[in-house]
Amino acid sequence: MGQTVRSRVHSNLSVFNPITWLLTALLLEPLQAPIWAAAPPKRARPPHFGKSITDVFFPDARAKLVGPRPEKSGSTSLPPSASLAPSQSAGAAQGGPWWSKLIAADVVEDEIKAQQLELGETVQTVSKFKGGDYQRARLHFSVLATMFAIDAQYDGALRWQREAPALRDLMARAGFNCKVGTDGSYKEAKARYEDLQNLVRGSPMQAPSAGPEADWPKVADRPPLMKRLEQAQQQGLAVWSASAGEFSRHADEMLHEAQLIAALAEVIAREGYEFADDEIYRGFALAMQIQALAVRDAVEQKNYEHARQAVGEISKACANCHEGFRN
Fold first, then answer.
1. Which of 23, 218, 236, 292 is most deeply packed, by most CB within 10 A?
2. Contact 304, 310 (CB under 8 A)
3. pLDDT tier at 279, thresholds 50, 70, 90
4. 1 exposure class (CB count in 10 Å sphere: 0-12, 13-18, 19+)
5. Which residue has better confidence, 276 or 89?
């Protein structure tokens, strides 16, 4: 009897021998890993650049460089304009791009006038404003603030440049406050609309002083700017490039919207905006900007086929970006 009990105890100890257990665990671990491993995150596909873009750049830039390589500094991060578009970084002025390479002065002025007119429709009555027009007002104020921010930094003569920094801040505050429709936000929106009316009519404006530098996320939220980009692409360029006849009839409008897209693509990739630190996101913004400038050039050259192709590439960049980064 005692011998039988000892045999059973010895047998059980053998079964739970620590060494045996450890070896068994190591053998089973590769089989269990796929069960417990986390699935890789799904992200948008990287942008595909066609021949019209790849031909602009050297296959290997190192083969064209002359002289010793610069010493590596403590920081390897690039400024927003350089990380977005290397071709622009050489022309950076006062911490920003040469805006004139992206958008003409008359386009900035015309966009301000157009947004001012549309803003007037949203502040006609407090009841309409509270009923939903405050959302439209938010879009108009956001675009206006962005245009005045560009105006303040513009590398050339541009109307309202002296007042632009103060107007940028006033429009920005009104835009952020128009996230809701209240008596307070309506009163402010109405006052800013009257300021704009006086400005367009040529009346002098008394406004607090401000510098030309812009903290872009405080100028305008990203969603309203994305909405304006969608309008320019879907309701503008995509429609006007559908046929050669539409292309000819709307050449001036295409020039305006293409340059607006190029400028807004620069803004939404600036430091501080959501996803601006993501290389893929910035790649989509760069692709959109390059193709928008290609549309501008094609319209000026009256080349319908090139314009149509560039508009198609803008549509692809927008669709791929929305797949992975849309809020």
1. 292
2. no
3. very high
4. exposed
5. 276
Helices marked H in 154-236: 164-177, 183-201, 216-219, 222-230
Q: Is the per-residue pLDDT at 317 higher than 70?
A: yes
Cβ neighbours around 20 below 10 Å, total: 11
Q: Binning pLDDT at 50, 70 and 90, where does residue 325 land? A: confident
The amino acid at 11: S
The mean pLDDT value for 250-272 works out to 97
User: What are the percentages of helix, strand and coil residues in the chain, rounded to 5?
Assistant: 70, 0, 30
Q: How far apart are CA 26 and CA 298, in angstroms?
A: 64
pLDDT, position 175: 97
Distance CA 109, CA 295 (A): 20
Enter the pTM of the model. Answer: 0.71
- In terms of Cα–Cα distance, which of 247, 197, 237, 246 is closest to 317? 237
Q: Which residue has the higher pLDDT, 210 or 59?
A: 210
What's the rounded Cα separation, in Å, for the pair 249 and 289?
24
**Cα distance between residue 307 and residue 292, in whole Å:** 9
Q: Do residues 122 and 137 touch, judged by C-beta distance below 8 A?
A: yes
- Cα dihedral 317, 319, 323, 326, rounded to 10, equals 90
Asked if 262 contacts 292 with a C-beta cutoff of 8 angstroms, the reply is: yes
- What local confidence, expressed as pLDDT, does residue 205 receive? 76
CB 212 within 8 A of CB 162: no
pLDDT at 4 over 70: no
Residue 85 identity (one-letter amino acid):
A
At position 99, the amino acid (one-letter code) is W
CA distance 106 to 255: 11
Residue among 178, 188, 144 at smallest CA distance from 164 = 144
